[in-house]
TrEMBL record:
Pfam families attached to this UniProt entry: WD40
GO CC list: cytoplasm; plasma membrane
Family affiliation: Belongs to the WD repeat L(2)GL family.
Per-repeat ranges for WD: 195-229
GO MF terms held by the record: GTPase activator activity; myosin II binding; syntaxin binding
Biological-process GO terms, alphabetical: exocytosis; Golgi to plasma membrane transport
Name of the protein in its database record: Anaphase-promoting complex subunit 4 WD40 domain-containing protein
Keywords linked to the UniProt accession: Exocytosis, WD repeat
Origin superkingdom: Eukaryota
Record keyword Cytoplasm present: no
């Protein structure tokens, strides 16, 4: 089975349309830069709806098993939609002072993780769409002595065998294994190449990272250095978009 990992939360720009692939079903989402969303693909599914005001969609996530959709407009406003009615219903909105770079909600979780361009992670309760007081600040996730920000949050992924552990990826190449209950960074990793994506092995003992220059690195969770590195595109003359796109084969 193959899975495509795209930078920028699974979105890629194509003209004036953002195409979002939902890897968990046949359903597809398409959002325009004016805030119109179309859901289609599965048998009998084809619905279009609009945001309350024109807004450029920068990210979106389907909340698995809950019939909910979260969209990000203009990089700062979050919208929670109920997809179960015939026509989707807007349930809540939430606005951030920081620009949002990534949103993530584990399967069957009650929480939405909101990563920002400043490198912080805010947590939203999905039930009432209220902001939690729990925040993962960038300077606590990486070294406390580090004075420069590690870049925006590129991706957040829950360890597939331990829901108490989050793997946080920063644009600069920093990665952190964060213990949610203890509120501490257990392990810090660093790859000196701009990060674009993360992918866990199903056993939760290894993960892979994709980087802007085409580098692919394999990591052991207990080691702060990659166990393997390779760059399948280093000898190929491909466009930047082709090099950024990473296809990981899972067996």
């Amino acid at each position: 089975m193959s899975r495509e990992i795209w930078p920028q939360n699974g979105l890629h720009s194509q003209g004036q349309m953002l195409k979002i692939n939902n890897n968990f079903s046949e359903t597809r989402f398409a959002g325009t830069r004016s805030g119109v969303v179309r859901i289609f693909g599965a048998k009998g599914v084809d619905v279009t709806f609009e945001h309350p005001t024109p807004t450029e969609l920068t990210s979106t996530i389907f909340i698995i098993n809950k019939g909910l959709l979260v969209t990000v407009g203009d990089g700062q406003s979050l919208y929670l939609w109920d997809l179960r009615p015939v026509k989707p219903v807007l349930l809540h909105t939430l606005r951030f002072t920081e620009r949002v770079s990534h949103i993530y909600s584990p399967v069957d979780s009650e929480w939405l993780y909101v990563g920002t361009e400043k490198g912080n992670i805010h947590i939203v309760q999905l039930l009432n769409f209220l902001l939690s007081s729990y925040t993962i600040h960038w300077n606590k996730a990486i070294e406390l002595s580090c004075r420069s920000r590690p870049g925006k949050i590129c991706q957040i992924e829950e360890n597939p065998t331990d829901s108490n552990k989050l793997l946080i990826g920063f644009e600069s190449g920093y990665l952190v294994s964060w213990n949610i209950s203890e509120k501490i960074a257990e392990t810090r990793y660093r790859c000196h190449a701009e990060l674009t994506c993360i992918f866990w092995h199903h056993e939760g003992k290894q993960f892979m990272t994709g980087h802007r220059d085409g580098l692919i690195a394999i990591w052991n969770v207990k080691s702060t250095e990659p166990t393997a590195k390779f760059n399948p595109h280093q000898d190929e003359k491909e466009s930047e978009a082709d090099r950024v796109r990473l296809v990981l084969l899972c067996r």
